[in-house]
């Protein structure tokens, strides 16, 4: 596990993507093939059920150390990670275990079917045979997921550096269906498995927010405009009369959207379609909050299907009759779609009309009123553009509506996770309602590290009460929060729900007396 | 009351018969100072008493014309019937525990301390007492330091990896204490350049007759001289233009807080070494036990946690809220505050 431990140490310390890629390439250059496969599984694989319950691990750790439960809890709340806490408080190792990553991973997998006593002695033996950093990794392997700042893209780039292959092709290979038991490292990187894989998706083409005025994009005739929707970007893959739905997070979400699968039932040709899964009721787009109810569920009940019905808005065509047409112009690709939509004849699948315009001027009011149809703004695409791999600047632009803003005061603070685990980064904000303060939103982003350090110090010095990891603080710090939309909500105490709230800036010039009232916030629903 | 003659006040811990304070955080007439860090040695006292090696440091930091009396370790001074002596605390050069004896009752004020020897400061000596006033900066069992030689090897490996690639190894450590410790750790690994803020402290220490390892003063005008070498700078300079100008710089933060991943990653440095000038969890418990004290007062750090744990272990322990470990206006210069997880 030495190579792996070294890799983790390097990667977790740097925030330079190139340094991470180099460290990964170095790992692939030096580690045995089976370990490489397991490493890829670890950073791309789906979460497994953990073979050892966390409370057992905590219990065993207390047995070894003899510390009282409350002291463990105190440590845990400082470290913010259970596996790391255990790794740090256990005594010095008594022996030295040196096994490869793949051995550890397959041993851990086999724990699932073992009796508890055997699991206990296996885990305790491993703990006492590893250094703290290796222990931490071992605990993370048991947990089955590793979040240390290696994105799929970084992984692919590291792999590309090692193999000399194209990142896009490697992305394909990794996204397909395989497991370390039925493929070799060479087969995986050369993509031998993906030809047989009906579900193979393409990497999504992503747009940047526009960084200039639209007038600077050139001739309006060369561009198409459509509404931007805040649903889930989805790729429908239909091959050999089987349908798969991939999310932008490159996960298969097929079982979660049976109505879309049904709609594609009759399609005979092999096609791959890019679009947006949106919650709609009676022709109106619902809020993203509603769509969230449909996500990450094992079973989609009938009740849920009627409560939050979804539709698929088609944007683009990547494969037509089994042929990759991503290099063809957008206008050509959209032509293909028109025939397809006509043949599908399902109320669930739409191809939204483009917004007609001849001069850029005409688009400004459309964008400004986008919120009235629950849209986030506009998408501008060059009519001749290919379907790029990943984020490319120039052909596709997001042109979002300016966010709404209010001033609110911080009333609770909670520690963050990962690299932010040592600071208060998650804030609950309130507005005034008569003489009371009422929670309006939670915000997790928008401040610089320096500001977070400053806020953390304030929280430490001004905490009123402790509820587990949450601190109640004196309502003094005022933040301007920005959000994309607002709607009435029965689930929220304030009666309103904000969409994607984040901190725009810290209003040091304002005091709690200057914040918005619930009344003024509700006005935004009608005049927003 | 802490014992029959020590009283906790809003200015600091006061010795009633001796009429002096221990590391007071507000101006008083007479102050006995454990060590030169800004949260323990504050300006505004009429008279100071401290160790020989601490005197030039506080003169440099506070003012050259303060009234100060210097003492050696073990030297006993009688102040109004209270026997006062200083004993090595191992925290940094000149750092002292303060032992007080009055009518046969002994109390020891630890200041900041570290039990493992570092090859630089006089090693910590346990002093038997009835009442022990201990710090608790790293008073959680997650903080347990690796032995000095393991740490040294890690640092050495990092430096030689950097040297092999032509990178400059930049260490960040507080100018008083940590910087000298780093200089000692990297001695012989390559030419060392130190920032002027550190060199000023170095000179103060050397003026008291304590020689420090060879080094040169960093001069950003001649930045290419530093390429591939070793640089030691105060942590406040992290991310500054000056540090960014150093060619092919790789930065390491040296602090006990680096023990926790979240803190290491927060700083986004290239390496984090858990090098601390404070006792770790085992060190605190061992030191407390060695004093054979029955009554323990726990100051700055995880005071509530450590006091509670000591009570469960059969000590009579209390937490004591002090002004130590707080940031002073001039900025952070100790390990107490900066980088600490909340």
TrEMBL record, chain A:
Catalytic activity from the UniProt record: ATP + (deoxyribonucleotide)n-3'-hydroxyl + 5'-phospho-(deoxyribonucleotide)m = (deoxyribonucleotide)n+m + AMP + diphosphate
A GO molecular function held by the record: DNA ligase (ATP) activity
A GO BP entry: DNA replication
Domain of life: Bacteria
Matching CDD domains: Adenylation_DNA_ligase_Bac1, OBF_DNA_ligase_Arch_LigB
One Pfam assignment: DNA_ligase_A_C
Database matches in InterPro entries: ATP-dep_DNA_ligase (IPR050191), ATP_dep_DNA_lig_pp_1105_fam (IPR026333), DNA_ligase_ATP-dep_C (IPR012309), DNA_ligase_ATP-dep_cent (IPR012310), DNA_ligase_ATP-dep_CS (IPR016059), DNA_ligase_ATP-dep_N (IPR012308), DNA_ligase_N_sf (IPR036599), NA-bd_OB-fold (IPR012340)
Domain ATP-dependent DNA ligase family profile: 303-433
Keywords: ATP-binding, Cell cycle, Cell division, DNA damage, DNA recombination, DNA repair, DNA replication, Ligase, Magnesium, Metal-binding, Nucleotide-binding
E.C. number: 6.5.1.1
NCBIfam families assigned: DNA_lig_bact, PRK09247.1
UniProt name for this protein: DNA ligase (ATP)
Species of the source: Membranihabitans marinus
TrEMBL record, chain B:
EC number: 3.1.-.-
Organism: Membranihabitans marinus
First-level EC class: hydrolase
Bilayer-crossing regions: none
InterPro entries: MBL (IPR050698), RibonucZ/Hydroxyglut_hydro (IPR036866), Xnuc_lig_assoc (IPR026360)
One MF annotation (Gene Ontology) recorded for this entry: RNA endonuclease activity
Name recorded for this polypeptide: Ligase-associated DNA damage response exonuclease
Key words, A-Z: Exonuclease, Hydrolase, Ligase, Nuclease
